[in-house]
Amino acid sequence: MKQNIQPKYKNSPWLALVVGNSRLHWALFTGQTINSAWNTDHLSESDIKQLAETNTIPISASYSRPIFISPNQPITLVLASVVPSQTKLWQTYPNIRLITLNQIPVKGMYSTLGIDRALALYGAGKTYGFPILVIDAGTALTFTGADANQQLVGGAILPGLGLQLTSLGQQTGQLPLLKTDEIRQLPPRFAMNTPQAIESGIIYTLLAGIKDFLDHWLSLFPESKIAITGGDSNLLKNYLQTQFPELGEKLILEQNLILWGMREIVMMNQE
User: Which is the most buried residue in 78, 84, 127, 151, by most CB within 10 A?
Assistant: First the structure.
């Protein structure tokens, strides 16, 4: 395995891979520009071995139409991972560069801060300015903030919308298992059937919790930008705009914050 590769990225293609809790998030860059971005499922050890041997990368969950990378012009795979087992597997891939927490220039980070949270925070701050608060609405719902001096203020972690729905469906005897893509609109607050009662309990409580965190953050940093990312970000932003219009309008929806953070780290090493 080749670590600490320092290729010239400025005008060259490179590949970003974010290993999330539920999926793999890919992006193909040319210098600082994202040419394309896509998601796949996690891959097995044998899948990754096959990709490494054939010098290909998957562009779908089944990677039935892989992108071929010429052995004569190897492309660097820049990796950020929150799943240690997947990190280990991907480190067998050729021309890999692993981004670690100590490479991210945010002050005061603690050692167990998730690399995804740190990269999203840095990417958002460099794009929109500090202070910044990032909400990541993925498997877990996280808040991560930094002040005007690029110093970590801290954050919070709670189960995301999908995880809360799954928990009730799997850990109870009679409650149905609901999925986020089945929720089309805000449910009635006082529901008259079980599925909507679950949606009501989880969604309205979640929205109230988000509002409380945002109100407190804005009391500390009134001029701060607030960015939201992650699989459920569009859904939650829409619901927040419905329930709390002024607050919802403050949210910047951007799915590529982690990728932007990776780009900043990669480009910084070219200076």
Answer: 78
